[in-house]
Design brief:
Layout: H1 8-21, E1 28-34, E2 37-44, E3 46-48, E4 53-54, E5 61-62, H2 67-80, H3 90-93, H4 106-110, H5 130-139, H6 154-168, H7 172-181, E6 190-191, E7 206-207, E8 210-211, E9 231-233, H8 236-246, H9 253-261, E10 267-272, E11 275-283, E12 289-295, E13 300-306, E14 308-309, H10 315-327, E15 349-352, E16 358-363, E17 367-371, H11 374-380, H12 386-401, H13 406-410, H14 418-432, E18 435-446, E19 449-458, E20 461-470, E21 473-477, E22 489-494, E23 499-504, E24 509-515, E25 519-524, E26 528-533
Parallel strand pairs: 7-14
Antiparallel strand pairs: 1-2, 1-13, 3-4, 5-9, 6-9, 7-8, 10-11, 11-12, 12-13, 15-16, 15-26, 16-17, 17-22, 18-19, 19-20, 20-21, 22-23, 23-24, 24-25, 25-26
Length: 536
């Protein structure tokens, strides 16, 4: 593949794009580099809202599971030293290990094919000694046959960290510092609670506007988290990690290639539009998310970190594809300019297109535009045959309400996943009482999926059921501990005296809502809809 050269115009466009995203919820840091040269390294929005401290190129973020490739690199170093191999089994390392885990190998742990359940802890900050962690991991139920299936496991990486300590003779964090971070010149990389930064340099995490505190003030990670997360750094240190891997500073070229060939820690895609992609993402429950992408054929690094979350998605993952598009030359439309301090004339309430589409505008603490019917979601996320899709989803919602899984199961790409859904539903009925009814809310997009949302009404509470569609079949669904009455809830800001503007960070699309004498006009990237105000 011929190497693409990132153009200066693309970097300038990306910087403008990111600055325009800030009013609509992006707060974080972005770095783009090629051939060892940093082309963009900027902070956007606020690191600390209370103190009005901006994010800069030097702000440090919790990058969540991006810790995992570094744990894997440490294991591969020990393999190079002859202290173990990819084929080493847990039985060879631990006497008395439960029989169901005895044949798990180091490769299984690294590649998330061990069959171990995801978590061995209840929270990231749960106090836990190494011995307690080992007991909890060995007591975990096996959720798949060893080596048969990819199941992401934080517990597997906690176990790898314990193995690093055992074979290196050093505490895990000391080994990582001495053998990975310092050789890679990652001088601004540390752990929760460390003091290698000043307090104002570490971002505070926010979930739905509420502060979750800063990794600077959090307790140091214990064995509930070590190996899988707990790292803090500016994204420029991830660029340094890429450079160290490229120049074989941490591992030999052969071992680096082995990690890619077997997808050890890294997610590897060979056939992207931009060639070989090696990546890992990270997120936490405390508002942080991060993305680390390495386009090997072009020696391009794109990495970003974010310190805000709406509670649903990892924001870094939401916006990373738009950043990639711009870097590779796509001229994405800029988000709209807004004037949050402008006084304007608007009318709250519901607005209808005269058919089944209903939009709601509220003006309480925030100005918010929400979809109140499936048909309204199609204005923001157009479907090839919206009416057929919405009718199918209404039938599925009714079948779920009646506990009739026959049609539901027939639409699954992998029908064997239906029992897992049924187990979740049974658990909710145990906690919340019998399922009473359902309501199909509409659909949106999540990366390459169309995601439809069904609201589940139990006797003593409600939950959401997102269905991820891939073409004409359902790829997956897991009920989630959340309840909301609409699919699209977009914060909007005044643009003129009678026009509001919004931007969807995930879809990368913008819209305006202009108030008229009798209603409003909604203009999205794909449609212009005349709406009438519904009198209550």
């Amino acid at each position: 593949m011929e190497q693409v050269t990132i153009q200066a115009d693309s970097i300038e466009h990306l910087d403008r794009y990111m600055k325009r995203l800030v009013p609509f919820g992006f707060h974080g840091q972005v770095l783009v580099a090629q051939n060892g040269k940093i082309l963009l390294n900027e902070g956007y929005g606020l690191a600390n809202r209370k103190q009005n401290i901006p994010n800069t190129a030097y702000t440090a973020f919790d990058t969540g599971s991006i810790n995992k490739p570094f744990t894997a690199i440490a294991i591969m170093q020990l393999i190079e030293q002859g202290k173990l191999s990819l084929d080493t089994t847990l039985q060879q390392l631990y006497a008395g290990i439960p029989n169901d885990k005895a044949s798990i190998t180091i490769q299984h742990l690294l590649s998330h094919t061990s069959g171990l359940e995801n978590y061995h802890m209840e929270s990231d900050f749960q106090p836990m000694t190494q011995e307690e962690a080992l007991d909890k991991i060995f007591d975990l139920p096996m959720i798949a046959d060893i080596g048969s299936t990819y199941y992401y496991s934080n517990a597997a990486y906690g176990l790898l960290a314990i193995i690093i300590e055992m074979l290196s003779g050093q505490p895990y964090r000391d080994y990582m510092r001495d053998h990975i971070f310092l050789p890679a010149n990652m001088t601004q990389t540390g752990w929760y609670g460390e003091r290698i930064w000043n307090e104002n340099q570490v971002a505070t995490g926010y979930v739905q506007g509420e502060s979750c505190g800063s990794p600077y003030e959090w307790d140091a990670p214990q064995w509930a988290l070590l190996g899988a997360g707990g790292l803090v750094h500016p994204v420029s240190d991830l660029f340094k990690a890429h450079q160290a891997l490229k120049h074989n500073t941490l591992l030999s070229a052969e071992t680096n290639q082995q990690m890619l060939d077997h997808e050890l820690a890294w997610a590897v895609e060979h056939d992207t539009p931009h060639g070989l992609l090696v990546q890992h993402n990270g997120a936490s429950m405390y508002g942080f998310s991060a993305s680390f992408r390495r386009y090997i054929d072009h020696d391009i690094v794109i990495t970003l970190a974010v310190n805000v979350s709406d509670g649903d998605n990892a924001l870094a993952v939401d916006v990373e594809n738009h950043i990639v598009d711009i870097v590779f030359g796509k001229n994405l439309a800029l988000p709209p300019t807004v004037n949050p301090s402008l006084n304007m004339n608007y009318q709250s309430g519901d607005f209808s297109d005269g058919n089944d589409g209903i939009l709601r505008f509220t003006s309480n603490e925030q100005l918010l535009v929400s979809t109140m019917s499936p048909e309204a979601t199609s204005w923001f996320f157009p479907l090839t045959d919206a009416s057929t899709f919405h009718q199918t989803m209404r039938e599925i919602a009714q079948a779920i309400a009646e506990h009739d899984l026959a049609r539901f199961k027939a639409l699954f790409v992998k029908p064997e996943r239906v029992p897992a859904y049924q187990d979740n539903l049974n658990q909710y009925e145990t906690e919340l009482g019998q399922l009473q009814s359902t309501d199909y809310l509409g659909c949106s997009s999540l990366r390459h999926y169309t995601v439809a949302y069904i609201r589940l009404f139990f006797e003593n509470g409600n939950r959401m059921l997102p269905l991820a569609w891939e073409g004409d079949t359902i790829a997956g669904c897991i009920p989630i501990d959340e309840d909301k009455a609409s699919v699209i809830n977009s914060i909007v800001y005044p643009q003129t005296e009678n026009t509001l503007a919004g931007h969807n960070l995930l879809l990368g699309t913008s819209f305006t809502l202009t108030f008229t004498e009798n209603g409003a006009i909604l203009a999205t990237d794909s449609a212009t809809i005349t709406l009438s105000h519904i009198e209550n």
